[in-house]
Amino acid sequence: MKKIAIITLGFALLSSSAFARKFKCSYYETHKVKSGRKVKVKSQKVLDIRVNLDKFDGGKVKIKSSYLFGDKSFQKFNFYRVDRKNEKAFSYAKFHNKTPKQSADKEWIPTYMRFSLPKKAFGKKKPRSFTAYFGYFRSQTNFDSIDGSLKGVTLSEDERQSFKSNNVNELEYKMTCK
Amino acid sequence: MKKIILPALMVTATILTSCSSSDSTIGRWFSSKTKRGYTHEYDPGPPKDSNWPKLFAETPNYRAFGSKVIGGRGEKFRWKFGPMWYRGRLGKDEVKVFVIGQEGAQDENVSNRSFTGSTGTKMQKFLNHIGINDSYLFMNTFVYTITGQYSLFGEDRENATKLDQQKRLLWLAQNENSAVVEHRHRLFDYAFETNKDLSLVIGVGTAGKDTAATYANYLDPKSKCSNRKVGNGGCLVKYKGKNVLFIGVPHPGGASPRNGGESAYTRLVSAFDKQAKIVLKAIDDKKIKLSTDKGGKRASSSSRYRYGNASIPHKDFAFGTNWRMGEWGTTSNRRGSHTIQVFSKGGCYNNGAIDPETGRCSQTKTDKISYSNPASLLKSAPKEMAKCDVPYESPKACTENYLVYDEGPGDEFGKVLLSFFEGVEWNAIGVTQHMSFGPNGFYRGRVESAKKLIIADQFSHDDFFSGRALSGEIGQRFQSVLDKSKDDYIIVRTAPVDTLDLDDSQRRAVLFNRDVVDLRKEVLEHVMENASISEIITVGDYAKEVGEDFAKKYKISPKHYSQAQVKKMALNIIPRKDLPAHTRWWMGTSGDRASRAYRKQGSSKVYSGDYYKLYAPYWATRWKSGSLGSEEKSSLEFFQNWYEGQ
């Protein structure tokens, strides 16, 4: 019995690690500058992301961006897979920095980040390069500090719609990954 | 008799209806009144005979000061598009409510006014609810956007490095010896000194509330105000014998369907409702004196506050600002640190695709648009920029140039210009630009002092962002002609809308449409009647035709320049006197800075009417933060002493 359990566990570990991948993703800002008759393209790397993600469980994400964090060093985060309805219909796998419990409880977090990459990046044959998307959303209020005892507000549909347009301080990047 | 009376009554009713409050005939011109006020209304910028221009121009070196105080490697503020200083009234005794936020975002960078995006339209609704639709002034804790978070949350509170950085940031943001706070208090002091009826201060978000509390304590140390008090019942502060109520509201952004969901949202709405009631009760109980603005409607203190957006009036924006700014929620998004994209009512945030079933913007799919990224024609700062200036701000107080800006066309000419735009069904005659953007910048200069009238075609999309005509590469080159003469000038474009994507026959169909010809002629005639024009110049082939036809009446033979001729001229810059207040230095330099989105169809480009983008030039994005001035050094010493004592 023990042998079966060990073999099963070993197989499970092998299976999950088979879906873990490391990628390096970058976003460059490009500028065109005319020099004489020529136009030169100047590039600056402004976002550097290193991921070590398991297709199902998520993993570690390191992000370097002075523009986002005011710091030139890598910031480390845990990212988790997002469970979505009709997941099979999506060609991209989505991860974010909310734990499964935070997602289930619909908890608010002050800095919400998400990272989406093609599911085929986890396939047997890793693509040479692919496009991924990173989103960064920063709040200026600690929603947990808002008095939760206030009750009795029933929202109208117009109010719900205006809620959806809360897009301040959202930054989204289309990145190239290897 | 009945047969005569009834039709007569119907005709009268028709006349009365057509002269309704939605349009107003003033002299020969009409200007439409919308929920945002009259379309010709605008903000001229800080009054030049007040202290405001100098105060804004004395903004400290946020970048260098921030780096020294907060430490670490990396910029502490987002600076490439410059600061955002205010929105609202700057005249004497015009302000009753003062709103303080944390900082601006990309909408504010495009409009050069604070609180013009999603948070701005939400606060506008709040002000309307308490009967204030005009007498307000918005400012922020920081005139630049900070990188990172203002507050620490969760696990970060256990991180020693982050705790230290936050301590430093809070010193910079709230200590009275901080150069940032010292400058901010000078701005706030002036607002209080020049507005005797200012009786309500609203802090928005954590930083806004902190800043409100800091200032309350500065005004009246006995008030012992705090972020907590401001966010709950409010602080009542004594200022020169009157009461001023300081309250706070949460920042609307940051809670969304994907983050916090309905629960966070319900709290947010509840909080706004509670604070609205506190204000209204304070007014009812005569704790503060806050009269309703003319045309304003004050809710009763028992009514439930309906959260949402309210459009920001045209009079809060510089003339020529695209109409999407402040219309409803956020109307632009960043693309990297050096570009901002604006989208029309038909477009989507981050150019999301429109879901064909719901007609709504998709959160997951994008509309595949492209841009031609314009090349910067300058590699370094223009010579006109003083050594003490920075490319991302308007001229600083180190020279008198801080007083050099265009205050707008004036009331009469503004109405004339808007008549030209509003009198034509542009999309019906072939224009593809979405009309929610309003008119492009289609005038530049001064009518009253003009000796030269320049009739020009459109050559770039820069006018969309600068709010003034001929402000891209062709305009910058042509400026060398204008700068040679001491004569003042007025430039009028052949159309107030974007026609660059049209082919020759399509463009002609627009520019020589009967209504367009008639209305443009009225604009040009207004110039001739109100200026002493001795020379008419045309720039561009269509402008040549327009000019030759128009000038016949005045027996002036126009001088013509083709685009090809202008292209060979030296590159100058658009003078600051032609641009609205607070235009950053790099605007109107370096050639074209703007682009319009297109979709590829085979080998062709089909231009989208919904998206435009602005690009900061490379040389400006490489600008070093510079060194500290004497006041900043002195402030830094205070910080170092304070920090060592911790």
Lay out the secondary structure:
The complex is a heterodimer of chains A (178) and B (646).
Chain A: H1 2-17, E1 20-35, E2 38-54, E3 58-65, H2 66-69, E4 71-81, E5 92-96, H3 100-104, E6 111-118, E7 130-138, H4 157-163, E8 170-177
Antiparallel strand pairs in A: 1-2, 1-8, 2-3, 3-4, 4-5, 5-6, 6-7, 7-8
Chain B: H1 2-18, E1 23-26, E2 29-34, E3 37-38, H2 52-57, H3 62-70, E4 77-78, E5 87-88, E6 97-101, H4 106-111, H5 118-129, E7 136-140, E8 145-146, H6 160-174, H7 179-193, E9 200-204, H8 205-219, H9 227-231, E10 235-239, E11 242-249, H10 261-284, E12 332-335, E13 339-343, E14 352-354, E15 361-366, H11 411-422, E16 443-445, E17 450-456, H12 462-466, H13 473-484, E18 488-493, H14 504-511, H15 514-530, E19 535-539, H16 541-551, E20 559-561, H17 563-567, E21 594-601, E22 604-615, H18 618-621, H19 630-644
Parallel strand pairs in B: 6-7, 6-9, 9-11, 17-18, 17-19, 19-20
Antiparallel strand pairs in B: 1-2, 2-3, 4-8, 5-7, 10-11, 12-13, 13-22, 14-15, 16-18, 21-22
Helix pairs in contact in B: 11-15
How would you sum up this structure, described in words?
The complex is a heterodimer of chains A (178) and B (646). Chain A starts with a helix and ends with a strand. Helices cover 18% and strands 46% of the residues of chain A. The model of chain A is unreliable at 10-16 (pLDDT under 50). Chain A has 178 residues and is of the alpha+beta class. Chain A has one domain (19-145, 157-177). Chain A contains four helices and eight strands. Chain A has an eight-stranded antiparallel barrel. With 646 residues, chain B is of the alpha/beta class. Chain B folds into three domains: 2-34; 52-338; 409-579, Uracil-DNA Glycosylase, subunit E (3-Layer(aba) Sandwich). Helices cover 33% and strands 17% of the residues of chain B. In chain B, the strands form six sheets. Chain B has a six-stranded mixed β-sheet, with helices on both faces. In chain B, strands 16-18-17-19-20 form a five-stranded mixed β-sheet. In chain B, strands 12-13-22-21 form a four-stranded antiparallel β-sheet. In chain B, strand 1 (23-26) and strand 2 (29-34) form a beta hairpin. At the A-B interface, strand 1, strand 2, helix 2, strand 4 and helix 4 of A face helix 5, helix 8, helix 10 and helix 18 of B.
